[in-house]
What does this fold into?
Amino acid sequence: MPRGDKSKYTDKQERKADHIAESYERRGVPEKEAERRAWATVNKDDGGGKAPGGSGRGVHTGHPAAHRGGKLGGEASAARSAAARSASARKAAETRKRNAERTSSRR
It folds into this structure.
């Protein structure tokens, strides 16, 4: 099988790669580079193309590439004003206090 042959990939993997490539292209990445990144992501998620046979329930992948969002964290919070963050923290503390009182009265 020559390098770059996609015959061993499932339909779902191909759809996934197409979706990822489109996302990169929307963000201005050239088409060939978007395609390369998309297949690299599918390989990282699923461990490459699948062996013949084995229809039915698949193996859970965990989608490791989809967990990069945490590395980008903090941007939304940093964009909010200090007053907004403080108000949110007060509201959360009040909710925790109310829930604690409710659970302690049940015991």
